[in-house]
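Figure 2 data, in text form.
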Amino acid sequence: MENSDKFSKIRSTINKNVIRVLIGLMNLSIILASLHLIYLVYQKVMDAPVFVIYVAPLFDIFDLILIIVVGYELTKSLILIISSDRIPIIPIVQIAMIAVANKIITLDIKYTGYWFSCFDCCSRTYPSFIEVQNKNYSKIANSLFR
C-alpha cells in the first residue's frame, strides 16, 4: 500500500510540474501576443490615412484581443488545477469550453468550407465555376438541403 501512495505522489508531482511548464509557456505567449497586438495597432494607425483604422484590420485586432483573453482564462484554470488536491471538474470543463469557443471565435468562414463562402472560394480557384454557379444555382442549393 505504501508503494502505491509513493507512486501516486510521484505521478502527481510530475503532472503538476508539467502544468507549471504549460503555465509558463502560456504566460510567455500572452506577453508576446500582447506585444504583437501593440505593434499591430500601431502599424494600422500609422498607415495612410493616419489615425484611421478600417473595418477589416479591426477584425484582426479583435481576434488577437480575444485570443489573449482566452489564453488568460486558460492560465487561470490551469493555476486552479495545480492548487487543488482533488481533480477539479469545473476547470476542466471550462478549459474544454474555452478551446471550443476559441476555435469558433477565430474561425475564418472564407477558408472553412462553409457553403456560402464555398462558391466564392471555388470561383477564385476555378473561373469556369462562375458559369456553373450562375446557371445551376438552384440545383446546387437544392442538393445541399437534401
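Caption note: The chain has two domains: 2-107, 109-146.
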